[in-house]
């Protein structure tokens, strides 16, 4: 269970001005929940995720994981980044085993665990390749395997499939769903895609900008497991209805922030 209480974060901009990225954000993420986060560009989604990961400090408020305050990064949380953030000089095997190595796991054990995960994300046979030899989709599979290798309780995903083509994205979504169905981690997943938010999430958090706040939380009562027939799910009336609702809400938010037209 992740509890976020009255979280505030302000950055100092390049011109010295203050940018209020998060304003009194309150959010609970339930155990084993798949929570997706949607909102206009710049509303503070990445900032929120980095705070939960313990990668950046915040100004005010609390983040608790199973009752323990977050004070920095920890073995209970793993992050997957949009730009993969792999070690370019290291092989797939070493990239996936990296977190285990950092935790002092011996070579034989970490390589065994890494091989299992590499297979799970469909990369068996690529263990000795380097990231530069892989497509974007394959690199993100490595990123996912690396995050899972340390057996985190919480997986924090920052637009992980934003940089891959549509077809690859679909495959990765299906794979992520089936991994989550098997392991039941708690996932917080940022996306720009309404379809992706609905397809994956138990609930969709809608954030609004300036300052970044939670505007609404929309439950997604679509049946699980969803990985086996994503196509059928997307054709269901419920899916279409929720996606349309999110679109309306996002459009309203956009309108609210549009500068008023000059009179006359
Ligand atoms: N290091 C920083 N220094 C100054 N301002 C920052 C910094 N990081 C983010 N910001 C500002 O904070 C606000 C929130 O940024 P953040 O990246 O969290 O938003 P986001 O919702 O993830 O955006 P996007 O959807 O475009 O990725 C934005 O106005 C951004 O310009």
From TrEMBL:
Keywords in alphabetical order: ATP-binding, Nucleotide-binding, Transport
Query: What SUPFAM superfamilies does the record point to?
Result: P-loop containing nucleoside triphosphate hydrolases
Determine the domain of life of the protein's source: Bacteria
The family database entries (InterPro entries) matched by this protein are listed as: AAA+_ATPase, ABC_transporter-like_ATP-bd, ABC_transporter-like_CS, ABC_transporter_ATP-bind, P-loop_NTPase
Which SMART domains does UniProt cross-reference here?
AAA
Xref: Pfam families:
ABC_tran
Query: Domain ABC transporter: where?
Result: 2-234
Q: What GO molecular function annotations does the UniProt record carry, in alphabetical order?
A: ATP binding; ATP hydrolysis activity
Q: What is this protein called?
A: ABC transporter ATP-binding protein
């Amino acid at each position: 269970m992740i509890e976020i209480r009255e979280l505030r974060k302000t950055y100092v901009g390049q011109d010295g001005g203050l940018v209020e990225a998060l304003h009194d954000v309150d959010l609970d993420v339930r155990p084993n929940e798949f929570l997706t986060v949607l909102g206009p560009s710049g509303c503070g989604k990445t900032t929120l995720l980095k705070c939960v990961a313990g990668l950046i400090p915040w100004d005010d408020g609390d983040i608790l994981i199973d009752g323990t305050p977050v004070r920095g990064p920890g073995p209970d949380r793993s992050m997957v980044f949009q730009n993969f953030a792999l070690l370019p000089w290291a092989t797939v095997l070493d990239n996936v085993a990296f977190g285990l190595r950092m935790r002092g796991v011996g070579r034989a054990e970490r390589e065994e665990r890494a091989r299992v995960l590499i297979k799970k994300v469909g990369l068996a046979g690529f263990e000795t390749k380097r990231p530069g030899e892989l497509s974007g989709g394959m690199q993100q599979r490595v990123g996912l395997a690396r995050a899972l290798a340390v057996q985190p309780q919480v997986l924090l995903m920052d637009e992980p499939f934003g940089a891959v083509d549509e077809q690859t994205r679909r495959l990765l979504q299906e794979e992520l769903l089936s991994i989550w169905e098997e392991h039941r981690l708690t996932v917080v997943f940022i996306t720009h895609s309404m379809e992706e938010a609905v397809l994956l999430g138990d609930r969709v958090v809608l954030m609004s900008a300036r300052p970044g706040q939670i505007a609404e939380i929309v439950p997604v009562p679509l049946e699980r497991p969803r990985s086996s027939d994503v196509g059928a799910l997307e054709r269901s009336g419920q899916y279409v209805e929720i996606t349309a609702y999110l679109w309306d809400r996002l459009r309203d938010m956009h309108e609210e922030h549009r500068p008023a037209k000059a009179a006359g």
